[in-house]
């Protein structure tokens, strides 16, 4: 069995969902430190003026973990994000198929970033047709060592193989996996091209850019990047 582990991100990119799709179990790790200016509270969409961030405002204080970070709802971010999708994707071929999911999401009062991100990840999995089981680590006792934590997650889920992102080659302590009898494979994702609006192809957008433009072919397109 293959396990993949990742922090919960906001409307993630294609490679995030490739990782989920390749795994037999996907574990959301939100008990680690929140990182500013990454993808835990923001992601990119394509517009007629180039790409732009969609950012969820948060009330973060170091050293909070991801699960401890509240959303700053004094800012009307849900309206801004919904309008951005309407403005830039309403004429995309599959916008009408998926718009209800986002309208419902933006209509809800979200208090915690991890809850919003988990909802968007699992909801987008359903839109894409990915059925990998998702688990969270909130009640698990895990090592504080980064590699030891991943080994513990593999043991908890019964996984014999850990699917790492490509960046894991730079920091994983491989002997720990070997000692536990767990194989490690690394994701080597090559971003596929697909039909977009607004000129030349722009990679590394949120997966919603693919979903609105690719519709039922989206998962096939994601898998083509392996």
List the helices and strands and how they pair.
Elements: E1 2-6, H1 14-22, E2 25-28, E3 42-47, E4 50-55, H2 77-89, H3 95-107, H4 113-128, E5 134-136, H5 146-157, E6 161-164, H6 174-180, E7 183-186, H7 207-214, H8 218-223
Parallel strand pairs: 1-2, 1-6, 2-5, 6-7
Antiparallel strand pairs: 3-4
Distance, first to last CA: 19 Å
Shape: globular
Instruction: Specify the biggest β-sheet.
Output: 5 strands, parallel
Number of strand elements: 7
The helix content, as a percent range, equals: 25-40%
- Return residue spans where pLDDT drops below 50 for at least 5 consecutive residues: none
Run of helices and strands: EHEEEHHHEHEHEHH
Class of secondary structure makeup: alpha/beta
Explain what this protein looks like in three dimensions.
With 226 residues, this protein is of the alpha/beta class. It has one domain. It contains 8 helices and 7 strands, in the order βαβββαααβαβαβαα. The strands form 2 sheets. The protein has a 5-stranded parallel β-sheet, sandwiched between helices. The longest helix is centred in the middle third of the chain and has 16 residues, at 113-128. It starts with a strand and ends with a helix. The model has no long low-confidence stretch (mean pLDDT 97).
């Amino acid at each position: 069995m293959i396990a993949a582990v990742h922090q919960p991100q906001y409307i993630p990119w294609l490679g995030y969902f490739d990782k989920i799709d390749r795994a037999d179990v996907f574990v959301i790790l939100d008990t680690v430190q929140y990182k500013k200016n990454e993808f835990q509270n923001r992601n990119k969409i394509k517009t007629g003026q180039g790409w732009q961030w969609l950012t969820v405002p948060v009330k973060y204080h170091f050293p909070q973990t991801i699960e401890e970070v509240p959303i700053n709802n004094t800012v009307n971010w849900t309206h801004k994000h919904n309008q951005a999708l309407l403005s830039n994707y309403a004429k995309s071929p599959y916008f009408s198929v998926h718009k209800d999911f986002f309208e419902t999401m933006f209509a809800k009062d979200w208090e915690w970033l991890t809850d919003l991100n988990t909802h968007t990840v699992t909801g987008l999995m359903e839109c894409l047709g990915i059925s990998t089981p998702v688990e969270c680590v909130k009640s698990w006792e895990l090592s504080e060592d980064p590699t030891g934590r991943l080994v513990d997650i593999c043991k908890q889920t019964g996984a014999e193989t850990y699917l790492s992102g490509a960046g894991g080659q730079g920091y994983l302590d491989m002997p720990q996996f070997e000692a536990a009898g767990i194989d490690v494979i690394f994701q080597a994702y090559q971003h596929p091209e697909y039909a977009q609006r607004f000129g030349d192809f722009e990679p590394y957008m949120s997966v919603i850019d693919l979903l609105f433009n690719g519709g039922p072919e989206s998962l096939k397109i994601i898998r083509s990047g392996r």
